[in-house]
Amino acid sequence: MMIRKVHYCCLGLSVVGVFALGACGVGEHADREGGAPVEAKVVVTTASVEARDSFLRGRDLAEKLRATEARVFFEEAVTADPGFALAHLALANSATTAQGFFDSLERAVELAESVSEGERLMILGQDAGTRGDAAAQQKHYDALVEAFPGDERGHNLLGTFYFGRQEYEKAIEHYERATTINPDYSPPYNLLGYAHRAVNRFDEAEAAFKKYIALIPDEPNPYDSYAELLMKMGRFEESIANYEIALAKNPSFVFSLVGVGHNQILLGETGAARSTYRKLYDKARNDGERRTALLWTTASYLHEGDPQSALEQCEKMRAIAEASGDWASVSGDFVLEGDIHLEAGESELARGSYAASMKAVERADVNEDVKEAARRNQIFREARLALLEESMGVARERTEAFAGAVSERNLPFEVRRVHELQGLIALYDGDHASALAHLEQANQQNPRVLLEMSWAAESAGDLDRAREIAERAARFNQLNINYAHVREKAEEFLDDLG
Q1: pLDDT: which is higher, 134 or 434
Q2: CA distance 39 to 98
Q3: Torsion region of 37: left, alpha or beta (phi above 0 gives left; psi -120 to 50 gives alpha)
Q4: What is the per-residue burial (b if ≥16 Cβ within 10 Å, else e) of 168-201?
Q5: 356, 351, 313: which is closest to 331 by C-alpha?
Q6: Which of 179, 194, 232, 460 has the fewest CB atoms within 10 Å around its CB?
């Protein structure tokens, strides 16, 4: 997998966890009053040698995408030094529940003023991103790179910020800077591969992944990442073979079991895929891994056109989260259920699930900015419901309300959602040029948007472009829950286009 990512669909927010830490010293502090620190790398502030050693062992594992194993060492670090800010940030990024993420991040923020400047900027940058303040997040990360231009992890972190904004060329610039600083530092090669894949430069992506494999050949993630590229390219059997190499390196590497199952789905072997996900569930080490198995089992049923069986898996996911009081995850599960109902044309059931999502997030122990993000994105869902019901007056009003709410934060993810709604309204109105213009500014990494673009192109009479975009939607071949909703529709539309 590219990065450790905790996704809360109830929030309309993707919180990217990366371990962008530099060289280490015990108890060292940069002097903020005296200007930029003189150290080339960000230092790690802890009063305990034992805590530092545990943290470094965890960081090494985390940077190899072995978060569950890394978490044990981060827990040891905060036990040895409860005031170890970066260890709390690392615990957030290796959390197995949404609530665990928020709790650990909150503790890191509480400690941020007592550590070095580089650490403070990392912590506050991630907190700003979680709160939906992209401008502040970029400010913190820019300051980090300016103060520590020779820290490869700082550039890796800033590159990942740009990756999340789909500004791939800027992301590539910082990843390449990280590899120039330290050619043996493996994470940016992984991320370079995904950035090149996102802009369809598959040769460059393959070169980056092969370099990643060469650097850490005994780790599972390089083979897993290369397998994702092969899956994207439609080379499913080769993809499975590389996922199996990853599993031979580490049988507990859950991402690769997910990948094997997804390839099996794309090969039409959904029963085999569910057996793979059952294997993941049975060997799961925590609730997060159990929920992951259930999520992709849900996707397998959606690919089969069986929403009822998919909803049964969602209920099992939600039961796990409810049992631990993880209301943020419960909220996300209700959003997933609502999306399944919406795609099935069941607007009232979808409306009920979305309302339940809002009740759950209001109950969650998360900060107000996170709850406000959930409220904003509920407006998006209300607009989609109105479009499904062809209640165009409501759809326009909700779209305008969403656009107004989004303008205050100007988050790229949400701005793209505004354009998607505006494009669909224009398509309904028969303004095909405006529909395409808006949809081109929507999320190009969402296969649903690609399918909507193909509809707009076909309506505008541009059949060649409609086929090309519909092909991209039908052959999206990525680990994306929206793909499960639209794959069959895109294939049928391609057939209709001839």
Answers
A1: 434
A2: 35
A3: beta
A4: beebbebbbbbbebeeebbbbbbbbbbbbbbeeb
A5: 356
A6: 460
Q: What is the pTM of this model?
A: 0.85
Tens-place pLDDT, residues 131-167: 889 899 999 999 999 999 999 999 999 999 999 999 9
Long-range contacts of 284-288 (CB under 8 A, 24+ apart): 284/254, 285/68, 285/252, 286/68, 286/96, 287/96, 287/97, 287/320, 287/321, 287/324, 287/326, 288/95, 288/96, 288/97
The neighbour count for residue 96, using CB atoms within 10 Å, is 23
Q: pLDDT tier at 25 (50, 70, 90 boundaries)?
A: very low
Query: 447-459 and 432-439 helices cross at what angle (nearest 10)?
Result: 160
Residue with tokens 């802890």: 46
Q: Check if the beta carbon of residue 98 is closer than 8 Å to that of residue 324.
A: no
| Predicted pLDDT of residue 12 | 37
Q: Which of 328, 333, 342 shows the shortest CA–CA distance to 315?
A: 333
Distance, CA of 416 to CA of 301 (rounded, Å): 28
